[in-house]
């Protein structure tokens, strides 16, 4: 597919169309409070780290967000167990305190719903790697949301992340496979990468499920079961991701 990929800094007029692109994110995911509070800030404060892909007719086909941060700061050094949420908080803390970033993390790569399955996510990942290099960094990391894990919610992420295919030794998970093919290496698991807590009524609205019994609830699109506390009136989802490091 013929795509034109540019930074939002170069084409700010695409911002509206980028947000209007129809995607397939489960509603509960976008209600992660860290994402809710900060995703718009990436666009407004770090547009050179945002990529937008348009097709031959100028329609937005996909987007990729990333953030720079300082991994070598005191108390860090290792990629965080808190994954997505933590790295976003680190990035904006560093921006606020004037710390010089030494690495970039991918935050989101999303393809328009009707264009999935055409290799666009791989193209955006390659463009993200190129953009990070152009900005002067030598590494890109990513708290990868392994896409097929939702079919095996009870599988341990510590096993799933390192599962490979017998045919070629590449990761079992298709999105992890795209990253490894692009030059990435699986580094570690982020067991608490994103946390979404809400009242039972909120979870019912997000999922259409009853959430009437205490215990694990299988939710479409979730990578692990959601824990429901029916008597106490809330449910919590803690999503695991997989850290992948790309050396450029």
Describe this structure in words.
The chain is an alpha+beta fold and 248 residues long. The chain has one domain: Aminopeptidase. The chain contains 7 helices and 9 strands; from the N terminus they run E-H-H-E-E-H-E-H-E-H-H-E-H-E-E-E. Strands 1, 2, 3, 4, 5, 6, 7, 8 and 9 form a 9-stranded mixed β-sheet that branches. Strand 4 (103-111), helix 4 and strand 5 form a beta-alpha-beta unit.
Distance between the termini: 25 Å
Count of DSSP strands = 9
**Strand/helix succession:** EHHEEHEHEHHEHEEE
| Count of alpha and pi helical runs | 7
Q: Please give the CATH class.
A: Alpha Beta
CATH architectural label: 3-Layer(aba) Sandwich
CATH topology: Aminopeptidase
Domains, number: 1
Strand content: 25-35%
Superfamily (CATH H level) name? Gcn5-related N-acetyltransferase (GNAT)
Q: Name the helicity range.
A: 25-40%
């Amino acid at each position: 597919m013929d795509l034109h990929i540019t930074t939002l800094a170069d084409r700010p007029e695409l911002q509206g169309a980028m947000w209007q692109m129809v995607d397939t994110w489960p509603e509960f995911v976008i209600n992660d409070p860290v994402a809710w509070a900060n995703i718009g800030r990436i666009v407004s404060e770090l547009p050179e780290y945002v990529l937008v892909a348009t097709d031959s007719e100028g329609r937005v086909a996909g987007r990729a967000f990333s953030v720079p941060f300082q991994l070598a700061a005191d108390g860090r050094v290792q990629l965080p167990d808190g994954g997505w949420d933590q790295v976003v908080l680190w990035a904006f803390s560093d921006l606020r305190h004037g710390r010089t970033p030494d690495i970039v993390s991918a935050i989101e790569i999303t393809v328009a719903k009707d264009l999935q399955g055409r290799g666009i996510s791989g193209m955006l990942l390659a463009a993200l790697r190129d953009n990070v290099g152009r900005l002067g960094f030598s590494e890109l990391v990513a708290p990868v949301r392994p896409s097929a894990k939702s079919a095996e919610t009870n599988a341990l992420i510590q096993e799933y992340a390192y599962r490979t295919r017998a045919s070629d030794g590449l990761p079992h998970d298709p999105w992890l496979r795209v990253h490894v093919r692009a030059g990435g290496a699986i580094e570690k698991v982020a067991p608490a990468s994103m946390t979404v807590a809400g009242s039972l009524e909120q979870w019912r609205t997000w999922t259409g499920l009853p959430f009437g019994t205490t215990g694990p609830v299988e939710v479409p699109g979730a990578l692990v079961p959601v824990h429901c506390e029916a008597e106490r009136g809330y449910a919590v989802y803690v999503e695991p991701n997989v850290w992948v490091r790309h050396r450029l």
